[in-house]
Amino acid sequence: MLRAKLGALTPAIGAVGFVVLWWLVYRLGLVDPVLLPSPAESFRAIWDGFAGGALTRDFLITIKRTLAAFAIAVAVAVPLGILLGSSQRVYGSVEFVIDFFRSTPASAMFPLFLVILGVGEGTKIAVAAFGAALLILFNTAYGVMNARKTRQAAARVMGASRARVMVDVTLLESLPQTFIGMRAGISFALVIVIVAEMFIGSTDGLGQRVINAQMIFNMPEMYATIFAAGVLGYGLNLLFIVVERRFIHWGGK
Amino acid sequence: MNAPAPAAIRPPTEITIRGLAKSFAGQPLYAGFDLDLPKAQVTSIFGPNGCGKSTIINMVAGLVPMDAGEALFDGKRLRDTVIGYVFQNYREALFPWKRAIDNIKYPLKLAGRTAAECDARAEELVASFDIRFDLRRYPYELSGGQQQLVSIMRALAPQPEVLFLDEPFSALDYEMTLFMRDKLQDIFEATKTTMILVSHDLEEAVYLADQVILLTRRPTRIAEIVPFTAPRPRRPETLTSDAFVQAKARCLEVFQREVRK
Predict the structure, then answer these.
(1) Among A162, B38, B63, B192, which has the highest number of CB atoms less than 10 A from its own CB?
(2) What is the nearest CA distance from A159 to chain B, expressed in angstroms?
(3) What is the ipTM of this complex?
């Protein structure tokens, strides 16, 4: 009984240990306190930031950009991925191009997008959407291509037309893989949005907040913002896992 | 080559295969292949590895294209015929995103039946199969035998003229296999649906069949058609009856002759 209760606490051990270690390093003065404030000070900055609304505002703006980029990526990449995946020959002909741009760091595309879209909201979202779309695209195409032939045959033999097989079987077969792409895509979109907020003439967002705090040496605020970005990334991932378990209950079975 | 039974007792034909040809990678598998499959009987197809037992039913069922030839169902084309097909790999044949009961109703929905008609037919099947597990579960929550039972119910739901079974019990344990054989026989007795069974288990092929079609090595021809007329329902005791032992021995003799060639 006690053992089971303690077992539930296992995941917390690492987190508590991390904070204790941080506190020890601070307390023993191993690192300049200007660079590493105490955990208490940092947590207060997080609290103040969210309670005061400044951090909340940047947090929400980053979420909004990330979701906008993700939505565009899904809207473009999922239908395109299905189209590409449903024909081996079409996919074969564009596989190299997709692989190439997928391997190209999306951040290297910033200057290009800046030239096309200018310094503004559009560029940040567009680059993030571009990177996320490629991840979603090839995962969706892969899912469609690897749909189980037996299931498609089962539907066909029951009299399903090609279109019906596509909608009733192939699309559902591809969903687990599409979701893997979407989960990777949204994490990636967040990375690009934060980088864009740091360096592309931004006046808001978590990225801009981190770099501002760093420039004025407000370390508690910087740590608070980094922590907020971590919460966001972790939360998005968790959300996807929950949605995935709920809607793709058959995945891996 | 194809030894026909005397016309008087010959049952009407369900499937006529004429001039069937199929090659894989330039190697002919079938060439000018003719076969008649009788209506309202169980026909087993048995032969050496790689002789195309599954390929032939896949071609007739429209899952694999023929290079030449045709298969007619009571004179009709495949697209005008309702068929059922039970795959060996039930895990990959059922739709895991649908509950078992919705898997069973799927071919009815495809045929444009109303929800009420689907429900009625599903209930009928549940009653005739004497199902004692929860069909609202998802396939992956069921045992292998239960899943294959759901597959068979799905195949039978639209009342097919012909039921194809491709090694349907080979992934099940022996106990389940015996149970499923009896289940399949009961269904046959009740519906007299024409059944074409591909099996790699000679005991099963003979036990269930009215006739066993023995195929040669490729290029595949019919080596012999062995009838097995023991009365139904056949039960495990049938396996030790003289008629069964003789029919199986004859099949084995032909099979070994063909394998050694």
Answers:
(1) B63
(2) 7
(3) 0.88
